[in-house]
Design goal:
The complex is a heterodimer of chains A (about 300) and B (about 170).
Chain A lengths: L10 H4 L9 E2 L1 H6 L6 E5 L16 E2 L2 H5 L10 H10 L7 E5 L5 H12 L5 E4 L2 H7 L30 H9 L3 E4 L3 H5 L22 E3 L15 H11 L7 E5 L5 H12 L4 E4 L3 H5 L10
Parallel strand pairs in A: 1-5, 2-3, 2-4, 4-5, 6-7, 6-8, 8-9
Helix pairs in contact in A: 5-10
Chain B lengths: L2 H6 L3 H12 L3 H13 L26 E8 L4 E8 L5 H14 L4 H4 L6 H6 L5 H24 L1 H13 L1
Antiparallel strand pairs in B: 1-2
The chains are: A alpha/beta (about 300), B mainly alpha (about 170).
Chain lengths: ~300, ~170
């Protein structure tokens, strides 16, 4: 990051005062690195129609269902599959991977998080995501790039620093430690809609994990999709919610995608030391036998 | 009623579209077809609604902030459906709105009551995330439920349905 910090295109990020500003790049930085062979742009969306409808020139797609989830287990891909994915996308361990996507970078943050399970730390999010790129009138293409396959040797997936499982969460609750529920206040309070003919939310019970504070993920972003400044974020997460950067914190939502966005905010932008994402989230906890909930 | 009977009771334009989609087995071809539909989506006209749209028209659980209006045409026993999709990246919601408008607006209400629960999967394929499934199912429900209420209260529609079932 030594030379990157001198780059004037990153000035808008540096002035926001983050603890780890190196994890973000601006749309302008991306525009100036479209032909940089050491940079791979990765678009990650919830909606698979979005990438083929037009993406940043040179960007490849990582689809969370097709590319990151194991087809049989409810789990992420293993080392061999990650190596194959990296090879297909033309990524080496040295490549700077820049994620961006729809929905204020939810899915981009989710892909970023999965890459951290394999130790690909040379990763960034494009601040503002697709929305900002489009609003600035920057180019899109429907051409799918063909990057030369690479050799990628990944370490075994290491979940422990970044990921919490249900037993970890139960122990966390019993120890009275903090959790952040990033769903909407209605979901948090268990006030789901029960209109006949409408889908339910994939859980038997509504409510939240005991001890969780509710900070909807969207509070971390500005209307243009960029992250709020460190000072604004500290006001929300530290002053209002009472979270401390040295605390052990678990974040969750419904399936772990919105919460990876908040995981990113706490870990990198505010420099929290121990933040894990519980990807089982409410679809697991709300159905789990013999665990407590709160409403 | 068997599955194939239920299929015959669908609005004919929807049946036609599902037949076309059945041929598009390559996901990329299907995406291209659906993107084209999304490109043709037109939001609710101002004579029906203007922003900010009422909360009662908001599709529950839809992350693309989709809205649905079902305007009844009582004499024809039909509905006109209108949609808005506030998230500009909500392409699936736009494509689905276009399909529902093209195939269900003006179709007899008793046909619309037969829209199958798995319509989103039949159109977008099995690889639907939970969030998208819930949003699309919510849109489906906001089109189908008013038609069901109409059918429950309308002897003419019930007769038409009975005749169609016994003829098939």
């Amino acid at each position: 990051m030594g030379t990157a910090t001198l780059d004037p295109t990153l000035e808008p990020i540096l002035v926001k005062g983050y603890v780890h500003p190196e994890v973000l790049v601006t749309t302008e930085w991306v525009a100036q690195h479209l032909d940089d062979p050491n940079v791979r742009l990765v678009e990650s969306n919830e909606d698979p129609l979005v990438y083929p409808s037009g993406h940043i020139p040179g960007a490849v797609e990582v689809d969370w269902v097709r590319d990151l989830n194991d087809p049989i287990m409810r789990d992420y891909i293993d080392r061999a599959a990650f190596e194959r994915l990296m090879s297909r996308l033309g990524i080496t361990p040295e490549t700077t991977v820049v994620f961006y996507g729809d929905k204020h970078n939810w899915w981009a943050a989710y892909a970023f998080w999965v890459f951290q399970l394999f130790g690909h730390t040379n990763a960034r999010l494009m601040d503002g995501g697709r929305q900002k790129w489009l609003e600035e009138g920057r180019p899109l293409t429907r051409e799918v790039p063909a990057h030369s396959p690479t050799e990628y040797r990944a370490p075994e997936r290491n979940d422990a620093p970044h990921r919490a499982f249900r037993d970890d969460v139960l122990a966390h609750v019993q120890a009275g430690k903090k959790l952040v529920d990033v769903r909407s206040p209605e979901e948090f309070r268990g006030e789901r809609l029960h209109m006949p003919g409408y889908p339910n939310e994939g859980a038997l019970r509504g409510g939240h994990i005991p001890g969780a504070v509710n900070i909807p993920w969207s509070r971390a972003v500005n209307p243009d999709g960029t992250f709020k400044t460190a000072e604004e974020l500290r006001k929300i997460y530290v002053e209002e919610a009472g979270l401390r950067p040295e605390e052990d914190i678990i974040v969750y939502c419904r399936i772990g995608e919105r919460s990876s966005h908040t995981w990113f905010v706490l870990k990198y932008l505010l420099g929290f030391e121990q933040v894990r994402n519980y990807d089982g989230s409410w679809t697991e906890w709300g159905n789990l036998v013999r665990v407590p909930i709160e409403r | 009623m068997t599955a194939s009977d239920a299929e015959r009771l669908l609005p004919p334009k929807l049946k036609e579209l599902l037949d076309t989609l059945a041929w598009l087995t390559d996901p990329q071809e299907r995406y291209a077809f659906l993107i084209e539909l999304a490109d043709g989506f037109r939001p609710v006209p101002p004579e029906v609604a203007t922003p900010p749209y009422p909360r009662e028209n908001l599709v529950p659980h839809c992350e693309s902030q989709a809205y649905v209006w079902a305007i009844e045409e009582p004499e024809q026993h039909t509905f006109r459906y209108y949609f808005a999709v506030e998230n500009p990246q909500g392409l699936s919601a736009k494509a689905f709105a276009k399909i529902l408008d093209d195939t269900c607006s003006g179709a007899p209400a008793w046909q619309v009551t037969h829209l199958p629960d798995d319509l989103p999967q039949r159109i977008f394929g099995p690889r639907l995330s939970m969030g998208r499934t819930m949003g699309l199912e919510g849109m489906l429900a906001m089109v189908r439920e008013p038609a069901r209420r109409h059918l429950a209260a309308c002897a003419v529609c019930q007769k038409a349905l009975k005749e169609t079932v016994s003829a098939s």
